Amino acid sequence: MSADVAVRVDKVTKTFRMYHERNQSLKSAIMRGRTSVHEDFLALNDVSFDVPSGSTFGLIGSNGSGKSTLLKCLANIYYPNSGSITHYGKIAAMLEVGSGFHAELSGRENIFLNGSILGMSKKDVTRKLDEIIDFSGVEQFIDQPVKNYSSGMYVRLGFAIAINVDPDILVVDEVLAVGDADFQEKCFNKFADFKKAGKTVILVSHSMDTVKSMCDQAAWLSRGTLQAVGEAQSTIAAYVDSLHRDAP
Amino acid sequence: MNYLKEVWGSRELLFNLTSREVRGKYKRTIFGQLWSLANPLALMLIYTLVFGIIFKSNPEPGSPSGLNVFALWLLCGLLPWTFFANVVNTASGSLVGNANLIQKVSFSRIVLPLSTVGSSAYNWAFEMAVLVIALSIAGGFVLPWLPLVLVAMALLAIFAAGVGLLFSIANVYFRDTQYLLSIVLQLWIYLSPIIYPTTLVIGKSKEIGGLLGTPITLADLYELNPMVHFVALFRQLMYDNRWPDPSEWVVCLAWAVVALFVGAVVFRRNERKLAEAL
To answer: Is A206 on the interface with B (CB under 8 A)?
Structure first.
């Protein structure tokens, strides 16, 4: 292992099945003698790159380019058909905040529940409880059931838990666009702290401004293949160029 | 082995998910946990009325306990059964019901069906405690047998977990499973000696003799049902207050181990495909 690589993506290929006919009931499976008719769709085609440790790494590309698929592969939710992804350090993914909240339980109970889903031990959560509550800004309502929360409060609490998992590598989908301007600034500061602590952040975003201001490295995906990887500025420029070129 | 380590590593999550189910279930009800007694009590009333009084199903009095109360005799088999049925039912829906979580967060998926075992076991333990008190009041001498009852409960929980794991995976691929399951469970309760004593089946079997000219009797087929053995364990320990036949222990242990092993292997094989299949 090389010390300066946080994640190594090596020849990752991922296909999905596109079903023309999917028999999710026993009757149809038996009648037709098969469970499905499908063709494979190549979502990621032989993608390889290294994410340097301590960098903030942006994944950019148009809709349907395979960014989210790659992100899910990084987060161990999907598994590549071939190739491998190696993490050097503890990884945590923030693909959606607040998943797994139980509506009838209080914010405090949900912090413990959600924390353990994200892989924190009870000790960790107890230690960080104040920090999480403080960050979320819902102190006043922390003992109320979360079903009474406004959607902003809900997301802020979820984000506060996820950001406090304290991984070496953080994988973030476009969840930065949550909360009010005040909360967003808090989040950006938190990411800056992350970077200062020498941790790696991998994020997907459609906002080139976000990527420009936060990332020092970037990878550009188009239709499942890697177009460019390297310095954020030049990669973004290449991506934006291609958009303008395609436009009539 | 690695898998065991992974599951062991998720024990805290398992505990949290279980308590989520337990605490979330009776929130905002007036009677709270008492509701978990309502269902078995209602079943007890119905079955006692229909089978104990109208049909006069007369199980032998417990020996040596001397108990002769149909309702208590019934509950000794009914409570383990409802636990088993609950686990299999809720476990089978646990993956589909948490699809959103599975597609967004990476964690050991097996805790989802296992947590339903935990939350059902919690309710079951509560029901069993009430039953033990009722048996004691009726003159049974259950207390010394409690450690063995706990062992039997653990065996049934393991068996139920294994079956639940299988159905949870099956339900991901074929959503009919949940509907089929409710029919299977209804059949299964009547194929088990819950509301009638095993002796009835054995008597009938002797009358008929070998089936279709083979030496296989009805009773032999009947004994293939694992619940026959589990119910026998509970009845003998709790109602009769005697040491169960060692062979019953062996059969139950074997069913529990095989079910859990097969369930875990099938689950592990499919675990990684869940996020896509759901």
So the answer is: no
